Amino acid sequence: MKTALVTIATGDHGKNWKRHLEPSWRAYATRHGYDLVLYEALFDRSPVALERKVSWQKWLLAEQPALAAYDRIVWVDADIFINHIDAPAITAGLAGDKIGICEETPYPSDPLFAMGRARAEQIMNASLAETYGDARGGDLYAIAGFADVKGPLLNTGVFVMGRREHGAFLRAMYDKYLQSGRNEPAWEMVPLSYELVTRGLYQLLDPRFNVIYVKPLMSVFRVPAPDPLVNGQIAFIAGMIANSYFLHFAGRHTDVWLTGFITFENGKIDFDRARLERLVREHTLPRYLGCGAKPNRPPQT
Question: What is the pTM of this model?
């Protein structure tokens, strides 16, 4: 079956994707026989669509002429680093009538991280309460107005769909929710998760295909974290990549540039210690122009 690995990345996000993420994606696509397709413009430019996040546009993939020749579409958000050495074919073993997708990554459950996890959950719930008036214990379904959902919360940053099997369904859901005017938490993720779960239209993928970086990060490091050059964050990212297939920088996309220190040599995932040590000694970082983040600098001594 012919498969496309697809994302949308516009403006500076597109430049950032090409600079930091495209090499790992291209290596993964080549290894598994997928075609890599990048869209740099929106599918729907109607006034209501322009008021919503770009991520809503992924629901319209099956309608794109450039994808008409493909049987399957693998959607991956443009803030994901792929461990192309270890990640198997994401399409393997999927039932044709289901959308392959991962559960939302939980916070680390190990007691070693209990204090950090509690701190991270407090921060996230405070943010939800500020935005929506009530954090509801972090229950995104409840915040979005979906009551008594019997099933997991699915993260739509990565999914595998059949172009013919699921295109009309996703278009119908796009029309239903885009016009609703509801201020959805996590944007399109919660309504699509709700529809997939209540219809039994999903098949769970290995959770390593969508590991949310920010949750273990917040459980290990204080937020805001000290300078990433000197706090071990780069080594932490290397470890996360080595234990993931797809590492998702949702909520921390400005950290994607740190993957520039990651090395793949002789089948081993590591980071460039010599370069890191040199930059620490010089108290400098290469200027980062991808997502508008200001480069950090080590403390002056």
Answer: 0.87
CATH of the structural domain 3-106+150-211, one choice from 1.10.357.10, 3.90.550.10, 3.40.50.620, 3.60.10.10: 3.90.550.10
Give the CA-trace dihedral at 214, 220, 222, 223, to 10 degrees: 0
Tens-level pLDDT at each residue, the chain (301 residues): 899 999 999 999 899 999 999 999 999 999 999 999 999 999 999 998 888 888 999 999 999 999 999 999 999 999 999 999 999 999 999 998 999 999 998 777 778 778 877 877 887 778 777 776 776 767 888 888 888 888 999 999 999 999 999 999 999 999 988 766 555 666 789 999 999 999 999 999 999 999 999 888 877 776 555 566 656 788 889 999 999 999 999 888 888 988 988 999 888 898 888 888 777 676 555 433 233 334 343 333 3
In the chain, at which residue ranges do the beta strands (DSSP E only) sit? Answer: 3-8, 35-39, 72-76, 80-82, 99-103, 154-162, 202-204, 211-212, 246-248, 262-265, 268-271
Q: Give the whole-angstrom CA distance, residue 193 versus residue 177.
A: 12
Side chain identity at residue 87, one-letter code: A
Do the Cβ atoms of 248 and 158 come closer than 8 Å? yes
d(C-alpha 208, C-alpha 290), whole Å: 26
Contact 279, 5 (CB under 8 A): no
**Every domain of the chain and the residues it spans:** 3-106+150-211
